[in-house]
């Protein structure tokens, strides 16, 4: 190293300017990168958990008659979401309870006269951010505002003889 460069480094160390810049730099890194990253990871995790809930609901709805699946106190609309809320649902920061819509559609008829049916389950959940970041100029879902997940999946009925029983 040259003598001029060594004296510049020595002067900087004695004045402590590197320490003075550390606090604001850490603040910017935390506010602009770390906390939003944590929020985005929580959003992805919540989406995955809601997909598990919807998958369990559509599976159960494909096994039972329509009257059981559409029952507000039945297994599809109440039982499975309650079990989910006591398990995976604990890790999802929600506003209210999950809502479930069950619908059916007729499929193609087979050669032996059996008519296929498909059940569709739509699960909607409003999630709040894990760490709300105060942004005075914008309301960004997932960072400082609620985010709505609406997941829909369908599955063929196990017993398509009369899905509207």
Structure description:
The model has no long low-confidence stretch (mean pLDDT 85). The chain has a three-stranded antiparallel beta sheet with strand order 1-2-3. It contains four helices and three strands; from the N terminus they run H-H-H-H-E-E-E. The protein has one domain (17-156). The termini are far apart. Helices cover 46% and strands 21% of the residues. Helix 2 (17-63) runs antiparallel to helix 4. The protein is α+β, with helices and mostly antiparallel strands and 165 residues long. It is elongated and about 95 Å long.
Please write out the topology.
Layout lengths: L2 H13 L1 H47 L2 H4 L5 H12 L12 E11 L5 E13 L19 E10 L9
Antiparallel strand pairs: 1-2, 2-3
Brief overview:
The chain is 46% helix and 21% strand. The protein has helices at 3-15, 17-63, 66-69, 75-86; strands at 99-109, 115-127, 147-156.
Characteristic key phrases:
165 residues; alpha+beta
Q: What proportion of the residues form beta strands (DSSP E)?
A: 15-25%
Average pLDDT: 85
Sketch the major β-sheet: 3 strands, antiparallel
Number of domain modules: 1
Task: Determine the N-to-C terminus distance.
Answer: 87 Å
The low-confidence runs, each spanning 5 or more residues with pLDDT under 50, are none
> What's the arrangement of strands in the largest beta sheet?
1-2-3
């Amino acid at each position: 190293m040259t003598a001029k460069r060594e004296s510049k480094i020595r002067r900087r160390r004695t004045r402590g300017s590197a320490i003075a810049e550390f606090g604001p730099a850490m603040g910017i890194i935390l506010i602009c990168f770390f906390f939003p990253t944590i929020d985005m990871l929580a959003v992805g995790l919540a989406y995955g958990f809601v997909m598990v809930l919807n998958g369990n609901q559509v599976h159960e709805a494909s096994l039972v008659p329509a009257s059981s699946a559409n029952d507000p106190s039945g297994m599809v609309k109440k039982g499975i979401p309650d079990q989910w809320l006591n398990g995976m649902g604990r890790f999802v920061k929600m506003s209210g309870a999950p809502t479930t819509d069950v619908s059916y559609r007729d499929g193609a008829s087979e050669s032996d006269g059996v008519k296929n049916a498909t059940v569709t389950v739509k699960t909607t959940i409003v999630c709040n951010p894990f760490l709300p970041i105060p942004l005075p100029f914008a309301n960004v879902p997932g960072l400082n505002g609620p985010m709505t997940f609406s997941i829909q999946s369908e599955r063929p009925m196990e017993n398509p003889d009369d899905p509207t029983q």
